[in-house]
Specification:
This protein is of the alpha+beta class and 506 residues long. The protein folds into two domains: 2-331 and 398-495, Up-down Bundle (Growth Hormone, Chain: A); 344-395, N-terminal domain of TfIIb (Single Sheet), CATH 2.20.25. Helix content is 71%, strand content 8%. It has helices spanning 2-33, 35-41, 48-64, 66-80, 82-100, 106-109, 112-140, 148-176, 179-184, 189-205, 212-219, 227-232, 235-269, 275-289, 291-303, 305-330, 398-419, 422-428, 435-451, 454-467, 473-476, 479-495; strands at residues 344-350, 353-361, 367-378, 384-395. A hairpin with a 5-residue loop joins strand 3 (367-378) and strand 4 (384-395). It is globular, with a radius of gyration of 24 Å. It is found in: Cell membrane. The chain crosses the membrane at residues 12-38, 50-73, 85-106, 112-130, 151-173, 185-204, 236-257, 277-295, 307-324, 404-429, 441-463, 478-496.
Length: 506
């Protein structure tokens, strides 16, 4: 009977913790999911490539600041408790996300628009830096002995579900609005909706109890008086922090962001896949892949955390380039046979110019729409000049569609291997009194710095390769996650002990 009550109690803990964490990830990922639209709203529109790169840099800024949130909120979590700390992070994240949806466009307030977005993005990063460590620690400290991998893996699903829900909300918003309405104001809806979800999560979380391990430590007077000093000033504990970062977290971070963000950016900006189709394909892969977080979390309770995580990194190192080459070939229309007589040519008047649209159809069921846009603009000398631009939109179907879903799904499996066990791994190697602080920093450096910079760094590497005339430029961005994962694999394989458990530093 006691076992049943215990199980029921931990499911309540999982539900309350996961809902709040899921909403925070949703808030954080809405920005990335709408990065292409945001680049046209908050940045100068005269250079789309620079605007997109600026958006990716702002997106990355939220990741870079996460370690500072880990230090600030981790310290609070070890001083005053897990529950109250991640209540604060929830409200901070929700408020920042809501306000991003309220900022006027660049056309209306100029450079104040990207500045305000950057500030709010930094606040999002600080909030997430405190949220994850609190939620993972809270759940782990409720978990029965020998089952931490299984129970904390439910928290691990929230990041992927957060991205999945952000994609679903965007697709539903687009479904109920016209393209013009979505472009004008509809893109703000996913940001504004977050305030309602945050409020619901707040009502649930405020009734939660503090974790039993922290309450016990506090009752016995064994909580830390200076978590930062004890976490990073003690050489023994600092060694574990560095090993957690370079032997696990940084590899996990780049695998995670390659599979879920680089893949999405690659489909939209390199393969030129229709945005809705790309979001749907990623959403399907996420839906089928997410249960494997729990599978590999549970397996890590039996086999140990180390090799479950390292296998995921090794597979990524060995297969990323073949996977992305296969993805690229799906919309490489230079190798496809066009259906004779089916080409459609249209011309339409648009605001300030014309739009010539040519749609080509191919024998494998795919299509390519080429839009040649000609607009009148005022040049630097005050004279009217013609501005030409081209937009490509590919669509796929049948076997190509299934193949692309499968290629993304494989990358999601790699994510579940490295991410499913890592919360339990990080919790177990640090003592209770400094656990929140000690585990949060390596996790958020690995994910915030190494992982968060991946979209911007990889895009930069691929762009440079394209300018240099490299025919396989689209693969060059992958060197970043491949090298980081390889280094992490070697360090983890050599120095991580699968039975490594924290010792009390008293």
């Amino acid at each position: 009977m006691q076992e049943q009550v215990s199980k029921k109690g931990i499911w309540k803990v999982i539900g309350a913790s996961s809902l709040g964490t899921l909403i925070e990830w949703y808030d954080f990922f809405i920005f990335g999911s709408l990065s292409i639209v945001i680049s046209t709203k908050f940045f100068p529109a005269d250079n789309p490539t620079a605007a997109f790169l600026s958006t990716l840099a702002t997106f990355a800024a939220g990741f870079v600041v996460r370690p500072f949130g880990a230090l600030f909120f981790g310290r609070l979590g070890d001083l005053i408790g897990r529950k109250y700390t991640f209540m604060v992070t929830l409200m901070l994240m929700g408020g920042a996300t809501f306000l991003i949806g309220c900022i006027p466009s660049y056309e209306k307030i100029g450079f104040m628009a990207p500045l305000l977005v950057l500030i709010l993005r930094l606040l999002q990063g600080l909030a997430l830096g405190g949220e994850y460590g609190g939620a993972a620690t809270y759940v782990a400290e409720h978990a029965p002995p020998g089952e931490r991998g299984y129970w904390t893996s439910w928290i691990q699903t929230t990041a992927t579900f957060g991205l999945f829900i952000s994609l679903v909300v965007i697709l539903l918003t687009k479904f109920f609005l016209t393209d013009v309405q979505f472009d004008d104001w509809g893109w703000r809806v996913p940001f504004l909706l977050s305030i309602l979800m945050v409020y619901v999560s707040y009502l649930i979380r405020k009734n939660m109890d503090e974790s039993p391990e922290f309450k016990k430590a506090k009752a016995e007077g064994k909580t830390s008086t200076n978590p930062l000093k004890e976490s990073f000033g003690n050489k023994y504990n600092l060694k574990f922090v560095l090993l957690a970062l370079f032997g696990a977290a940084m590899g996990q971070g780049v695998v995670w962001y390659t599979g879920q963000f680089y893949s999405m950016s690659f489909m939209k900006t390199v393969m030129f896949l229709d945005s809705d189709q790309a979001d749907t394909i990623l959403g399907i892969a996420l839906l089928f892949g997410t249960p494997f977080f729990v599978v590999f979390g549970k397996l890590s309770d039996r086999w140990g955390r180390k090799w479950v995580m390292l296998v995921g990194m090794l597979l990524a190192v060995l297969t990323y380039r073949p996977i992305y080459q296969a993805m690229y070939q799906i919309t490489d229309f230079t190798t496809k046979e066009e259906v004779i007589g089916e080409r459609k040519v249209e011309q339409q008047e648009i605001r300030g110019g014309t739009d010539d649209v040519t749609t080509r159809y191919f024998t494998d069921g795919s299509s390519l729409k080429q839009e040649h846009i000609l607009k009148a603009a005022i040049g630097e000398d005050g004279q009217t000049v013609e501005k030409r631009s081209e937009k490509l939109t590919a669509k796929i179907s049948g076997g190509n569609y299934v193949k692309l879903v499968f290629l993304i799904f494989i990358q999601i499996i790699y994510i579940t291997l490295v991410y499913g066990p890592i919360a339990a791994f990080l919790v177990e190697i640090f003592p209770v009194k400094i656990r929140y602080t000690s585990m949060s920093l390596p996790y958020h450096i690995g994910n915030g710095i190494f992982g968060g910079l991946l979209p911007a760094v990889s895009t930069y590497l691929a762009t440079n390769a394209q300018v240099a005339g490299n025919p396989q430029f689209y693969l060059e961005g992958l060197w970043y996650p491949i090298i980081i994962s390889a280094v992490c694999f070697v360090i983890g394989a050599m120095y991580i002990n699968k039975n490594m458990v924290a010792k009390d530093l008293n």
